[in-house]
Structures are given as structure tokens and as C-alpha cells.
Structure to design on (88 residues):
């Protein structure tokens, strides 16, 4: 099976902007008054949860791809070392 291209791990401009947006939202949430009713904060909490779950799925997918690549590399190295031992 051919190995797919590696995804860059370095932070991209889009990721940095997304993180900055999340930080600004987090600071605005922490500065909110406690006088707001709980019913107003529920939908926002659900959207935050949905965002967290989406990011977790993406991370899991990325880690799965990296793990598959690592397993392929290990398998190839074992085959190479087995061939070199058999040739001696």
C-alpha cells in the first residue's frame, strides 16, 4: 500500500488564527457576569462541545494516519533486516 504524504505538524497561519480566536472567546466567556440565566449559556456550551468533539475527531484521524505510517516503516525495516541477515 503506498504511503500517503505527511501532513505538516508546524503551525499554519490558519491554525494560529483559529487559536487566537478561541483564546479571545475564552477570555470573553471568563469575563461574563454571573447574572446571565443558565438557559442562555446552554446553547453556547453545546456549540463549544461540538467544536471540541470535531477537533478531537480530526486529531484522532491525524494520529491514526501517522500511526499507520510508522507501522509501515517498522514493517519495511524488519523486512530489510531479515533479508540482510538471510544474505549473511
Amino acid at each position: 500500500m503506498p504511503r500517503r504524504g505527511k501532513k505538516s505538524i508546524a503551525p499554519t497561519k490558519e491554525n494560529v488564527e483559529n487559536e487566537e480566536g478561541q483564546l479571545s472567546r475564552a477570555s470573553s466567556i471568563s469575563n461574563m457576569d454571573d447574572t446571565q440565566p443558565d438557559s442562555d449559556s446552554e446553547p453556547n456550551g453545546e456549540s463549544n462541545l461540538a467544536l471540541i468533539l470535531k477537533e478531537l475527531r480530526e486529531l484522532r484521524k491525524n494520529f491514526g494516519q501517522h500511526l499507520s505510517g510508522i507501522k509501515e516503516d517498522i514493517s519495511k525495516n524488519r523486512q530489510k533486516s531479515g533479508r540482510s541477515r538471510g544474505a549473511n
Summary: The two ends are 29 Å apart (CA to CA). The helical segments are 13-30, 38-87. The chain has a mean pLDDT of 75. The first helix runs from residue 13 to 30.
